[in-house]
């Protein structure tokens, strides 16, 4: 109920204005978001890399409505990729990209616009010496995103994609991407989806997650286990050992600001751990999805905006 309300609020312009213009919100947002500029992103990434972690930087923004916004987003990625290479961080820091920020849902030719833009980002990533992972948005975008992934992989075989275990279709998608040897970031899913396409109970979502993990671990794909769930983390560790995978043959991934002690614990135990670090101005929908994930985050947020 609370999750649904927060996910609905993530698309409300009125609530957005209230949250964005509350000066106290910044304190809470700062827990999940690295800052607004390239420097903020780089400083946070460098700090994490120095503590033994890897990073995926995501420039915040989604669901653009004007084609002119596409070039701005591409340029933001080109700048950060160039800066990563100059700072010697590209081996440990990749980028994550939302195709809706590149025009995927524009009425006129959106898919082609997004493919061309993603191609430019992949070219810049290749030059910098790093990789790109395509985020997954709501279920209506999955076919298009996987289509664009396959187009990009023809020239950039290291492009990865996200699959969401709450979607009923994901086991099939996972088997296909596993057979193709793709880098797959497996998460549970963060959007408001109808029951016709998504499992509703935590139990069903978790079972689907484990089935997908089994498929990925048994394949030539590179599994990226994106979860904070201790049970999923333990099962993934066991499956990786059963399949004889070394620490460079899969990785754990978590969000910046969520269970930071666990990031370090896993890294110190010898696992590869990557932290997803968002940065940029357009933090509202990302932030609301983080609140929706965990009621404790809402309490933390309310305490921060009502007390000094
Ligand atoms: P879940 O939310 O089910 O929590 C399970 C358990 O994990 C909790 O009971 C608790 O023990 C622990 N836990 C979770 N959050 C915690 C917290 N804040 N503090 C302490 N413990 C906590 N989604 C999407 O739809 N598209 C995408 O592209 C991505 N990309 C993405 C990248 C990466 C790197 C990550 C980690 C996640 C995503 N997601 C995503 C988000 C994902 O779908 C999901 O919403 C969140 O990861 C939360 O789900 P969990 O798997 O963590 O478990």
UniProtKB/TrEMBL annotation:
Alphabetically ordered keywords of this record = FAD, Flavoprotein, Nucleotide-binding, Oxidoreductase, Proline metabolism
Question: What SUPFAM superfamilies does UniProt report for this protein, alphabetically?
Answer: FAD-linked oxidoreductase
InterPro entries membership: FAD-linked_oxidoreductase-like (IPR029041), PRODH_bac_arc (IPR008219), Proline_DH_dom (IPR002872), Proline_oxidase (IPR015659)
Which EC numbers does the record give? Answer: 1.5.5.2
Any one Pfam family here would be Pro_dh
Q: What class of enzyme is it?
A: oxidoreductase
Q: Which GO terms describe its biological process?
A: L-proline catabolic process to L-glutamate
Provide a Gene Ontology MF annotation, just one. proline dehydrogenase activity
Binding annotation for substrate? 98, 289-290
Which residues belong to any copy of the Proline dehydrogenase domain?
41-300
Which coenzyme or cofactor does it need? FAD
Q: Which pathway does the protein contribute to?
A: Amino-acid degradation; L-proline degradation into L-glutamate; L-glutamate from L-proline: step 1/2
Q: Where does FAD bind?
A: 136, 164, 188-190, 202, 227-228
Q: How is the cofactor bound?
A: Binds 1 FAD per subunit.
Q: Which reaction does it catalyse?
A: L-proline + a quinone = (S)-1-pyrroline-5-carboxylate + a quinol + H(+)
Its protein name is proline dehydrogenase
From which source organism is this entry? Haloechinothrix alba
């Amino acid at each position: 109920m609370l999750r649904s309300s927060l996910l609905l609020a993530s698309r409300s312009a009125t609530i957005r204005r209230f949250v964005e213009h509350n000066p106290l919100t910044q304190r809470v947002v700062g827990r999940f978001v690295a800052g607004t500029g390239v420097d903020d992103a780089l400083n946070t990434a460098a700090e994490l890399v120095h503590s033994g972690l890897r990073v995926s930087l995501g420039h915040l923004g989604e669901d653009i409505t004007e084609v002119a916004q596409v070039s701005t987003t591409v340029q933001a990625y080109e700048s950060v990729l160039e800066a990563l290479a100059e700072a010697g961080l590209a081996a440990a820091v990749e980028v994550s990209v939302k195709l809706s920020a590149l025009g995927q849902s524009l009425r006129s030719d959106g898919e082609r616009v997004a493919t061309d833009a993603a191609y430019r980002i992949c070219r810049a990533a290749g030059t910098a010496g790093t990789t790109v992972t395509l985020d997954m948005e709501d279920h209506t975008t999955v076919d298009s995103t996987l289509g664009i992934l396959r187009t990009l992989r023809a020239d950039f075989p290291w492009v990865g994609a996200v699959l969401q275990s709450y979607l009923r279709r994901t086991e099939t998608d996972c088997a296909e991407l596993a057979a193709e040897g793709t880098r797959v970031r497996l998460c549970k899913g963060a959007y408001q989806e109808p029951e016709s396409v998504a499992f509703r109970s935590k139990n069903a979502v978790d079972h689907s997650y484990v089935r997908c993990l089994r498929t990925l671990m048994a394949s030539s794909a590179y599994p990226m286990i994106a979860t904070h769930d201790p049970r999923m983390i333990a099962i993934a560790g066991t499956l990786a050992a059963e399949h004889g995978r070394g620490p460079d043959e899969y990785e754990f991934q978590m969000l910046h600001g969520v269970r930071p002690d666990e990031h370090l614990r896993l890294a110190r135990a010898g696992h590869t751990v990557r932290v997803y670090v968002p940065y940029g101005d357009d933090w509202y929908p990302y932030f609301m999805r983080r609140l929706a994930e965990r009621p404790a985050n809402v309490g933390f947020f309310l305490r921060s905006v009502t007390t000094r």
